[in-house]
Amino acid sequence: MSDDEKERTVELHYEGGTLTLPVFTGTEGERTIELKTLLGSTGMTTLDPGFGNTASCSSKITYIDGAAGILRYRGYPIQDLAVGSSFLEVAYLVIYGELPEPGQLKEFSDKLRENADIPDDMGTFIDAMPRNGHPMSLVASAVNTLAAYYDDSVDPDDENQVELATIRLMAKLPTIAARIYRNSIGEQPIAPDPSLDYVENFTRMTFGDARPDGELGELFGKAVDLLLILHADHELNCSTATVRVVGSSQADIFASIASGVNALSGPSHGGANQAVLEMLDEIRDSGVSIEDFLERVKNREVRLMGFGHRVYKNFDPRSKEIKGLATQILDRDDNPDELFELALKLEAAALADSYFTERKLYPNVDFYTGVIYRAMGFPTNMFTVLFALGRLPGWIAHYREQLHDPAFRIARPRQHYIGANERRYPGQG
Ligand code: MLT
Questions:
Q1: How far apart are CA 363 and CA 340, in angstroms?
Q2: Is 13 part of the annotated catalytic residue set?
Q3: DSSP 8-state class, residue 317
């Protein structure tokens, strides 16, 4: 075997012999061992709880280098996209693979404006759901029913239908989310206004005349746009992996994305932004000092929410951008935000403590988002819905990419069985 071939293969020595497995190198030099022949050749599976070492697909959408704190969508660093692009441009990039030309962006945006309405009976259905239910559960249910209201766009094998469903999802999710919010505060829904851009329309449908105008309104609009950009995709996180798994059964895109919303709702995933705010509230209300709180974290009595990440072993690059945004919005000499000050102190104390740095526990995307959303007037239980609005292009892009993947198969992991051996059924001889 030549050195070159050795580079591109690994050998697995096991009791029954030696298996040579191919090694693929990704565009950023990352290497992955293909295990397709493992079970057939050796009778063995691999055990990888939580898929920490498993690449379940090849993808061209997002690149993360967790050690270096790098995140790129379709090759573009998120820092550049954050400065140079709007959320709609980024959504287009993530879904279709390239930044849009001005004409393409206008066409995309026009289609979203035209499709932002939901059918009247869908509105009635949303209004009939429990108004004090968690909005993530209501959003997931509403997204699921889109398949029933729009059954002309549920066939994964028809590209035109998938495209139509893409537009409908992007266009209608803000309308659905805003209606669910207004129901929760006992206010009438506000219909989408086709003269407004995507984010403006969402904040108007949410807050109506109560949204700030002038300089503050503009700053809030830009902040929501930036937060959506920073959440647009994150490769095979739990909710995106869920969208792919559900979609791999040829389930329609609405069903697959409703499953993604459900996966995102958990406090170990998107629900963490809500959990961070609740933690900060509790520290403030209980009067515990930050030092004592961190001691309790070390004793495993409480969890430090918004710190640490499965992939980033250093700063989450999104958290730096979000901290900058929070500073812009909340660090006002005239009116300092109490929870932001507390978050800053908590971050500084944790980063000065080797317990946290040795364990690579740095602030993640969720740490500062909540304080910004709260300052804008969003209630805590809407934070994860905002994450879902941002993540939607990523879910759509992964669903679509999978449909064209030549290696596409229904997701069907194996298990390592550790249960009882065959047993005699009671009463049998
Ligand atoms: C995300 O953006 O989905 C979260 O950071 C979680 C993850 O990537 O695992």
A1: 14
A2: no
A3: H
